[in-house]
Amino acid sequence: MRKCLLWMGHWLVCCLAIQAQDHDVLDEVIHLPKLKGTTYEILNLISERSGYMFMYDSKMINSNRNVRIPAGKYHLKDAINRATGESIQIKIIGQHILLYKTISSPDTQPESSPPQPSPNYLTIEGSVKDKENNEPIPYCSVSIAETSIGTITNQNGMFLLKVPNSLSNAHIHISHIGYETQQFPARILAGNKADLYLTTRYIPLEAVIINLSNPQKIIRDMMENRSQNYTSNPFYLTTFYREGIERKRGFSNLSEAVFRIYKPGYNNTLPEQVKLVKMRTISNNRETDTVIMKMKAGVNATLMLDVIKNIPDFFILNKENMYHYTKIDMTVMDEHLAHVIAFEQKSGIDGPLYKGELYIDEKNSALLHAHFRINPDYIKQARSMLVVKKSRNMDIIPEDAVYSVSYQQWNGKYYINHVRGDLYFKVKKKKFLSGSTSLHTYFEMVTCKIDTLNVKRFPARESQPTYNIFSETNYTYDESFWENFNVIMPEEKLNEAISRITPKIEENVEK
User: Fold this and answer.
1) Do residues 231 and 163 make contact, with C-beta atoms less than 8 angstroms apart?
2) Span between the terminal Cα atoms of the chain, in Å
3) CA dihedral of residues 491, 497, 500, 506 (deg, nearest 10)
4) Residues 440, 422: contact at Cβ < 8 Å?
5) Cα separation values, 85 from 67, 428, 466, Å
6) Residues 432, 434, 436: CA angle, nearest 5 degrees
7) Rounded CA separation 128/135 (Å)
8) Residue 98: is it exposed, middle or buried by C-beta count within 10 angstroms (0-12/13-18/19+)?
9) Where are the alpha helices (DSSP H) in 374-471?
10) From CA 15, how far away is CA 19, in angstroms rounded?
11) What gap in Å lies between CA 357 and CA 219, rounded to an integer?
12) The predicted structure's pLDDT at residue 8
C-alpha cells in the first residue's frame, strides 16, 4: 500500500399553496437593536431573532454592503428589505427563506423552432459556506436524502446536483466534518443559485474528556469492525473523475470522466474494474515550456486510496509498527461524534512514510475520513516513486504529496465517497542555478451513485486499464456535455483558464 500510494503521480421556484403562509410569516414582528454592519451580518441576526434560515445568491444580493438600522420593532419583511437595501422577492418553505430577484430574459428562440423537451431532472446549484465567517467550505457531501445519489462541493464550496424528477419532493442533505448537518427542500433550490450555510458544531469539553481513550485501541476497533461497517458484497459505483496539471503560469492539462466501477466487496481479493462511460480532455497547446509532465496511473491511484480495502501501513498495529499515535480531538459528522487521531512516523525511522489525521466514529468505529501526506522531512527521498519518467535535462523535485479519502453511510453500510491526491513539485533545468518553476498535479474522484442489485463483473473488453496515461484529447468545457451525470464543478480559476484557451477542439465519447 505504501508504494502504491507514493507511486501515483434562473429563477423558477416550485410553489405549492404557501402564499398565505408567506404573508403570515413576513408580518411577524421582531425586535432589533441599533445595528451597523454588513448585509450578511444583519441577515444572520434576523435569522437568530426569527428562527428562519436565509438562502440567497451573494452574487445577486451584495452580502458585503454596509447597512445601518435604527433600533425598533420591524415586520420580518421590512427588516429583510432594510438589510438588503432593496425590495426583493421572498419565498418561504418550512424554516427556510429564499431571497431572490426576478430576472426577465428575452425569448431568443425563433417562433418556428420546435419546443425543446424538458429535462428529466432538476438542477440544484449553489455554494456552501461557513455561517460564522462566510468562507466557502470545500468538499462538503451534497446528496439526495435517503438515496445514494450525490456529489461534493469543489474547492470554492460550489456544487451542482442533478435530481431526478421523481425525487423533486426530496430534501438535499449537506454535511461536513465539524459542522451541523443541514437539509434543504429540493423544490426551493431547483433553478436557483443560493448560498447555503453550515454552523460549526462545538464539542463540550466534558465530552472530550469523557471520550479520552487509547488511540491505538480506537484504530484496532476500527479494523475489527470493518466487516460490520463495510459491505462484503459486490457493488457498482457511478463516479466522476478528474485529473489535472497546473504550472506556475496556470492551467496546463485537464481530463474528466464518468466511470462505472465494479467493487468486489471489502474482504474480497478480486481486482476492481473500471468501465469508461464518458470522457473529455483539454490541453493548453500554447504552453511552450520544454518540460512535459504526464500523470500516470491516476485512476489506479484513486482506487488504491480506498484505505479500507487497501490497508495502509499506519493501520497495522504490530511490534514492527513505525508510527506514533495521539488522540487530539473530538468532532462531529452527520450528528455522530468522532475521534480525531493524529499519527506520524516514529523518530529514528528514516525514509518517506506518512503523517496525518484519522476521523473514526465514536459509536460504531467506522472510518469516516483520512487526511495524510508524505512526511515533509523525507519528501525528497520519495522522488523515484513519485516521478515515473522525466526529461534528461530537467530536475523534478517533489515538495509535497497530500491525500484525502472520505466515506459516506448508506443503508447501514459505509462506501467510498471522495478521494483526492495533490502532488507538488519544483522543476528546473539542470546546470542552471535559477529559473525553477512550480508544478501541481492532482486527481480526484467522487461517488455519484451506488448500486447493489444484479452486480456482475464487466466483460474484459469493457474494462478500462487503470495504469495508463489518461487520454489527451482536446475539448472546450461544456456543462451540457455531461447531461444528467453528476460531476464536481470546476473551480473558478479553472473555468477562467479554460475560457481563455481556443486550440483545436476534439471530443471523444465512449460508451
Assistant:
1) no
2) 32
3) -80
4) yes
5) 8, 54, 55
6) 100
7) 9
8) buried
9) 383-386
10) 8
11) 12
12) 42
* Claim: this prediction has a pTM higher than 0.85: no
The whole-angstrom separation of Cα 19 and Cα 422 is 49
pLDDT score recorded for residue 9: 41
Continuous H helices in 193-346: 205-210, 215-224, 226-229, 298-304
204: nearest Cα among 51, 381, 332: 332
Q: Which residues contact 23 (CB under 8 A, 6 or more apart)?
A: none
Alpha-carbon gap, residue 288 to 457, rounded angstroms: 44
Using CA of residue 126, residue 131, residue 134, residue 139, what is the dihedral sign?
negative
Burial zone of 272 (CB within 10 Å; 0-12 exposed, 13-18 middle, 19+ buried): buried
CA distance 266 to 230: 7
Q: What is the DSSP letter of 270?
A: S
DSSP per-residue codes, 287-304: ---S-----BSHHHHHHH
Q: Which of 309, 310, 304, 317 lies closest to 219, judged by CA?
A: 317
Residue 232 and residue 204: Cα distance in Å, rounded?
36
Listed as ranges, residues in the chain with pLDDT below 50 are: 1-20, 104-113, 287-291, 471-476, 501-511
pLDDT of the residue at 406:
96
Lookup: cell for 486: 453528476
Residue 502 is predicted with a pLDDT of: 34
Instruction: Determine contact, residues 425/222, Cβ cutoff 8 Å.
Output: no
Q: How many CB atoms lie within 10 A of CB 430?
A: 9
Q: How far is CA 406 from CA 116, 198, 333, 357, 361, in A?
A: 40, 19, 11, 12, 12
**What is the tens place of the pLDDT at every residue in 206-250?**
655 655 678 999 999 999 999 999 999 999 999 999 988 887 666
pLDDT at residue 434 in the model: 63
Give the separation between CA 43 and CA 49, rounded to whole angstroms.
Answer: 10
Distance of alpha carbon 239 from alpha carbon 210, whole angstroms: 39
- Residue found by looking up cell 481530463 in the block: 255
Rounded CA separation 352/376 (Å): 8
Dig out the grid coordinates for 31 from the structure: 425586535
> ∠165-166-170 over CA atoms, to 5°?
90
CB 371 within 8 A of CB 328: no
Beta-carbon count within 10 A of 392 CB:
5
Q: Residue 23: its pLDDT value, please?
A: 59
CB atoms within 10 A of CB 366: 24
Residue 241: alpha-carbon gap to chain centroid: 12
